[in-house]
Amino acid sequence: MLGTFQHSHLRIEVDAECDRLKACFTDPKLLKKWLTFQRFPADLPETLSVGNQFLSLAGGTVPVSHEVELLEGNRIRFTLSQGIDGFHEWAWGDGWVQSRIEGVSWLPINVGQSLSLLCLKHFLSQPIEA
């Protein structure tokens, strides 16, 4: 993989409880709603689980392959390849979410990470749809 090794670890406060945050990371319908700058395949399962693999397009153009490596009560970890070779781990609790990403890429992955957190925070500030 061409690029530079990069790593970043960010944590923010959000207006959400654990159950809602877990749904945002494991329900592809919700994932598509808040991670709007990324394109996802239409054939994702109803709920992500360990071993699920899919290809997304970062910024709508750069392919990034994801595999759910770990899914625990308040943490999910994706192994990444193609546009980013590394991993992206999300952890959450009542009122907070953190993102840790490491990988080799020519993309500025900390910019994408910051944008992801801002999109999630904005999504969580909206009323829950019935």
Keywords:
Alpha-D-Glucose-1,6-Bisphosphate, Chain A, domain 4; seven-stranded antiparallel β-sheet; 130 residues; globular; alpha+beta
Helices, by number, come to 3
Secondary-structure element series: EHHEEEEEEH
Q: How far apart lie the N and C ends?
A: 44 Å
* CATH arch. level architecture: 2-Layer Sandwich
Largest sheet: 7 strands, antiparallel
Compact summary:
The protein has helices at residues 18-26, 28-34, 109-125; strands spanning 4-13, 38-39, 53-58, 62-72, 75-82, 85-93, 96-105. It has one domain: 2-Layer Sandwich (Alpha-D-Glucose-1,6-Bisphosphate, Chain A, domain 4), CATH 3.30.530. It contains 3 helices and 7 strands.
Topology:
Layout: E1 4-13, H1 18-26, H2 28-34, E2 38-39, E3 53-58, E4 62-72, E5 75-82, E6 85-93, E7 96-105, H3 109-125
Antiparallel strand pairs: 1-7, 2-3, 3-4, 4-5, 5-6, 6-7
